[in-house]
Amino acid sequence: MFLLAVLVLPFAGSFIAALLRVNARNAEAWLAGSIALTAFCLIGAAYPNVTNGRVVGWRTDWVAELGLAFVLRLDGFAWAFAMLITGIGFLVVLYARYYMSPSDPVPRFFSLLLAFMGAMLGIVLSGNLLQLVFFWELTSLFSFLLISYWHHNAAARDGARMALVITSTGGLCLFAGVLLIGHIVGSYDLEQVLASGNVIRSHALYVPALVLILLGALTKSAQFPFHFWLPHAMAAPTPVSAYLHSATMVKAGVFLLVRLWPAMGGTNEWLWLVGSIGLITFFLGAFLAVFQQDLKGLLAYSTISHLGLITLLTGLDTPFGQIAAIFHIMNHATFKASLFMAAGIIDHETGTRDIRRLSGLWAFMPITATLAMVAAAAMAGVPLLNGFLSKEMFFAETIEVHDNSLVDQALPYIVTLASTFTVAYSLRFIRDVFFGPAPTGLPRVPHEPPLLMRLPAELLVLACLVVGVAPALTVAPILDTAARAVLGSAMPEYSLRLWHGITPELLMSIVAMVGGLGVYVMLRSYLLVHEGPPLLGRINGKRIFDWVLVTLSWRLARWLATNLGTRHLQPQLRILAGVAFVAALLPLYARGLSLTGPSGREFDLVFGLLWVVGVGCAVGAAVQAKFHRVVALILLGTAGLVTCVSFVWLSAPDVALAQIVVETVTTVLLLLGLRWLPKRIAQSSPDEARGSIRWHRARDFSIALLAGLGLATLALAAMQLPDNHSISRYFVENAYTKGGGTNVVNVILVDFRGFDTLGEITVLAVVALTVFALLRRFRPAPESIPVPEQQHAQDAHDEAHPDRQKGDTAKDTLATAALMMGLLFPVIGVVAIFLLLRGHDLPGGGFVAGIAMATAFILQYMARGTVWVEARLHVMPVRWMGFGLVLAGCAGAAACVFGHPFLTSYFAYAELPLLGRVPTASALLFDIGVFSLVVGATVLMLIAIAHQSLRRYGVPLQAGQRAPGERPKEGLV
């Protein structure tokens, strides 16, 4: 259960942080730091339970029938990663407290940072692949928000967009790959997938699944050819770069590669795809890093290079390679996070990150310089530092024979050459920034930062030193625990001794360091005057990305819109109906259709006449829709009423009740919306267009007739199926025993199909917000703007009598109706509550009650007007919607707390004074959430329509009163 607490804690902290004041910088830092430290301690305390290959787990069924469950799984590898996420997260929070400006919206920063921490923990703790993909995409979303934190900066917006597009696209590929893995294995459970390596590797879908999963991992870890998004993400605040782009997010891809290696590794496809991309990225990133003039740009490309190194180790497809990859993941997180912090300190205290303007900073900030130099030396692989140990393991692995190809034989020489560039950019970071003449013309005078701002970097550098000097006493047990969780019985022998003698890997390190020194000396004069590398300077990843994005999102879209699109609704509906009709014919053509004629029910003449009326109204509405909209709406409402009576006739009162309230509300809202539609445009040449009009009507009538007959035939065929083919019997038999209610329809909505209902109300909320947003920008057609003639006559009558004011006639006309509608408000409210409370056993429920309650608000708007109502009733529909969604979600999640699947309901009988035994069900809370959201969504759309009148007529307001259509957004929430 502690795993659930660790996962939920950052998200809960994120929610609380978002509610704090903008200037609550200390409170935010204390909150975020406390949560990160608490999670770090909880995970650290679990270490004895994950040694020797043991696993700690927590599981709750989600959809047990489909084998879906919410699974948390902590083994040694996940433990090591979770310690990095929470430990470095705590240090980044402390660092950010002093880095961020008091003028920055700090609550938003810490809220997003904690949410990202929770998403990363979700990735490493997931025991289900679908669950992992969900958290994977969450990291893309929160990283987008963190990179664009300074959204006033165009570079931040562009970098965030680029990161989101690339990583989320990779996430979609990962999702597709996971679906293939689930199809191959028959389960998405990580334990079962890892144990099914032979099944996966021998399956025909192995290569497609591998490619898709690699696309997800490589885009997240900024591997070639997707590497270019990471340097542009450096527009983010430095704490974000230190956390996301060195220790956590970019490590998610290599984490996934190592995690799935037992199931998907061991093939030539893995060796060549993963190994080749890792090798290219390692070399290319190191080469480009040498020529960067921005400190964070240099660190970004060095991160790309080291991630390529880790990917290459994983791709070499040996157990020792996985150990070296895990070790370098740990080491890189420590020295790279400290380097980003040092770069942020330099930027914070000098006002620039341009290496050409920085020199001689040792004299001004010696402690920071020392920290940065030690971390840079670890990055270069200098002995007695942690980077040297994992680099030695890397060199040792590249010497081994893998497939004895030409590339395999040349691999030691290629990686040694790439490592010379690693030493060169590390040396440049040290020499050009901290030594040389004193800097001139800096925006600020350099000086040491506050102690607590420097402390996180000091702790990380101390870790680099301690691990480098005494690896066997510090990191060896942790590395063994993490590696054993991945490799199991395939764990090879290895040693973390500092001295192994004169070995080939030691000679490679010496050659790399000497060669790196020579490369730096040769390129120093070039770097002082040139921007970018000499060979690849014209290849701009951002420019290619923008070209692809513009081509797909604008040029291609414009071509499709020009050649296939139309601004008219009828052609779109024709295409939609035609495609649906053809799609329905395909299975009928393949399987045939058997109709046995009418069922045993006798034909009722009255019922038949009722449907004749309904069909006539529907056809009349279609005929009159273009010419007489109000008449068409009345006929359409009559057809809906016939449908309602049909439900009553067929003994479906619950469905009939829902139909009548929905029909009422939609008719009123459509009637209000018709006021602002433009008038029908008359034909300029009726005689010439008459033939074309007849053809168009005949065509549209044929499509409508085919679609209607097809749907009727489908419905008839479905009703003639034997009962043993229907799931309805299950619902009828188990509604009371498993759902605690006798109203089968409502039990289906809030229990059996509660997840569908949750999705539907979410869609309803999105639709309501979209309608409101669109209508806020909507302006009526010119011919709809003038005041109607009837109102002109009423106003003229009022102005002709000195004892009357303008608008009195309209008020008098509606006086009785307004009084009756006002009195109906509490009555309808009581009826709505009655329908809500009885819905689990009798016709009613949250949806019907919500529509009924919204009807009460509609009547008030119609009778009293927008200004009068909103001056007296603070509706706040967005809060109703938010409360409903949260309550419905919490009602479902509460079941998980007690170890049951999501949205499992509980019911019992409560003994109440005077009332006796009263049936109660937890589904009532879910139904209340539905009720609240339906009320909010309906009223929000009503407000959007009603405010059009205010914008048109320019209603004069009393002193201190805001127009509801122009008030700030808080007025709606």
Question: How does this model look, in words?
Answer:
- The protein is mainly α and 973 residues long.
- The strands form two sheets. The chain has a two-stranded antiparallel sheet. A two-stranded antiparallel sheet has the order 3-4.
- A hairpin with a 3-residue loop joins strand 3 and strand 4.
- Helix 3 packs antiparallel against helix 4 (106-125).
- The radius of gyration is 34 Å and the shape is elongated.
- The chain starts with a helix and ends in a 20-residue tail after the last helix.
- The model is unreliable at 953-972 (pLDDT under 50).
Topology of helices and strands:
Layout: H1 2-19, H2 25-45, E1 56-63, E2 68-74, H3 76-99, H4 106-125, H5 129-147, H6 154-185, H7 190-194, H8 197-201, H9 206-220, H10 229-232, H11 238-244, H12 249-264, H13 268-290, H14 295-315, H15 319-350, H16 366-380, H17 386-399, H18 406-434, H19 451-469, H20 471-474, H21 476-487, H22 504-529, H23 541-563, H24 569-591, H25 605-624, H26 629-649, H27 653-674, H28 686-719, H29 728-739, H30 744-752, H31 754-777, H32 789-800, H33 808-813, H34 815-838, H35 846-864, H36 866-872, H37 877-897, E3 907-912, E4 916-921, H38 923-953
Antiparallel strand pairs: 1-2, 3-4
Helix pairs in contact: 1-2, 1-4, 2-3, 2-4, 3-4, 3-11, 3-15, 3-19, 3-21, 4-5, 5-6, 6-9, 9-12, 9-13, 11-15, 12-14, 12-15, 13-14, 13-18, 14-15, 15-16, 15-17, 15-19, 15-21, 16-18, 16-19, 17-19, 17-22, 18-22, 24-28, 25-26, 26-27, 27-35, 29-30, 30-31, 31-37, 31-38, 34-35, 35-36, 35-38, ...
